[in-house]
C-alpha cells in the first residue's frame, strides 16, 4: 500500500476529543478476532483514504473459528458496544466467523449504526468458473454455520463447491509466520488432496488467509484463481456510510489508522503496522 494513503497513529487517541467533533468526523471501527481483518482494512483505506479508522484485533480470544456460535456472538456484541461508547460512526465486522454469528442481530440491536460484515466470495468464484471445482477454505465454525450453507445452496448448481475447514491456519498469520517454511508444510498437508485432484478456484473464507495467499498459490499452482471478499466489503461500507449521510466532507485529507489489540505486545502491534502496508 502506498504510504501516502494513510497515517498510522501510535499515540493514545483522545476519545473525548473525538466525541466533540461532528459525527461525520468520527472514526470507523474495524473489528476482527486477530490481525486478519487488516486484509479488509487495507481495502477500506484504499476505498476511503480520507476517513479515519480504528482497528481492533481480539488476539487474546483468537481463534473464533473453534468457539461456539453463542460465545462468538457474545464477544462481538461486547466489542460493538464498546465501539459505540468510543464514538465511532460505523462498524465493519472484518471476520467471517463473527459475521456469521452476529451481524444480523447487531443490525437489529443498533438500527442507526451502519454495520457491515464479510462473507466468503462464493458468488464471483462460481459465476466466473461455471461447471468447475471451487474450494472454499474457512474456519470450522464458518463452515458449520447455516448462513454459509445457504450461501452454498444459492450457487451449487453453477459449480462444484468444496468446503474445507482449516483449523490452525490463521495462527500462522497471528504469529507473523506468513511465507514461512512452516506454513508451506502445513498447507501441503492440508491441501494434498487438491494437489492430486486440482481445483480451479479457491475462496479465502477467513480474513487471515489473504496474508498466506502466496503460500496457497505456491502449493496449488499459478493456474488456480483465488478470491476473497475484502474489496466488496469495502465498497459496501462506503455505500452504507454515504447512505447514512456520514461521509467526511473533506476528501483531500489523509486519514489515519489507530490499532488496538486485546493482547497488545510490541511484537503484535508491530505486526499490525507491517500487515497494513504489506503488498
Structural summary, described in words:
This protein has 279 residues and is an alpha/beta fold. It contains 13 helices and 10 strands. Strands 1-10-3-2-4-5 form a 6-stranded parallel β-sheet, with helices on both faces. The longest helix is centred in the first third of the chain and has 18 residues, at 69-86. It starts with 6 loop residues before the first strand and ends with a helix.
SSE layout:
Layout: E1 7-9, H1 15-20, E2 28-32, H2 38-47, E3 53-57, H3 69-86, E4 90-93, H4 96-109, E5 115-116, H5 122-127, E6 133-138, H6 140-144, H7 146-155, E7 160-165, H8 170-174, H9 181-190, H10 192-196, E8 201-204, H11 213-220, E9 225-227, H12 230-243, E10 256-261, H13 266-277
Parallel strand pairs: 1-10, 2-3, 2-4, 3-10, 4-5, 6-7, 6-8, 8-9
Amino acid at each position: 500500500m502506498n504510504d501516502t494513503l494513510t497515517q498510522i497513529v501510535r499515540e493514545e487517541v483522545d476519545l473525548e476529543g473525538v466525541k466533540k467533533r461532528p459525527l461525520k468526523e468520527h472514526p470507523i471501527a474495524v473489528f476482527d478476532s486477530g490481525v486478519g481483518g487488516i486484509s479488509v482494512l487495507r481495502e477500506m483505506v484504499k476505498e476511503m483514504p480520507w476517513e479515519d479508522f480504528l482497528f481492533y484485533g481480539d488476539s487474546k480470544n483468537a481463534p473464533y473459528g473453534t468457539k461456539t456460535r453463542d460465545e462468538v456472538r457474545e464477544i462481538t456484541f461486547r466489542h460493538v458496544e464498546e465501539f459505540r461508547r468510543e464514538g465511532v460512526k460505523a462498524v465493519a465486522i472484518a471476520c467471517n466467523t463473527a459475521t456469521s454469528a452476529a451481524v444480523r442481530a447487531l443490525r437489529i440491536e443498533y438500527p442507526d449504526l451502519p454495520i457491515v460484515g464479510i462473507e466468503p466470495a462464493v458468488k464471483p468464484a462460481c459465476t466466473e468458473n461455471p461447471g468447475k471445482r471451487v474450494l472454499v477454505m474457512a474456519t470450522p465454525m464458518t463452515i458449520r454455520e447455516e448462513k454459509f450453507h445457504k450461501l452454498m445452496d444459492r450457487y451449487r448448481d453453477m459449480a462444484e463447491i468444496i468446503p474445507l475447514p482449516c483449523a490452525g491456519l490463521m495462527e500462522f498469520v497471528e504469529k507473523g509466520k506468513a511465507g514461512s517454511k512452516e506454513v508451506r508444510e502445513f498447507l501441503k498437508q492440508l491441501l494434498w488432496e487438491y494437489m492430486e485432484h486440482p481445483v480451479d478456484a479457491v475462496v479465502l473464507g477467513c480474513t487471515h488467509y489473504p496474508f498466506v495467499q502466496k503460500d496457497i498459490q505456491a502449493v496449488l499452482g499459478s493456474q488456480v484463481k483465488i478470491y476473497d471478499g475484502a474489496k466488496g466489503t469495502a465498497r459496501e461500507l462506503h455505500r452504507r456510510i454515504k447512505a447514512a449521510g456520514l461521509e467526511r466532507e473533506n476528501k483531500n485529507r489523509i486519514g489515519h489508522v489507530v490499532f488496538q489489540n486485546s493482547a497488545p505486545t510490541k511484537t503484535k502491534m508491530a505486526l499490525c503496522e507491517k500487515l497494513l502496508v504489506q503488498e
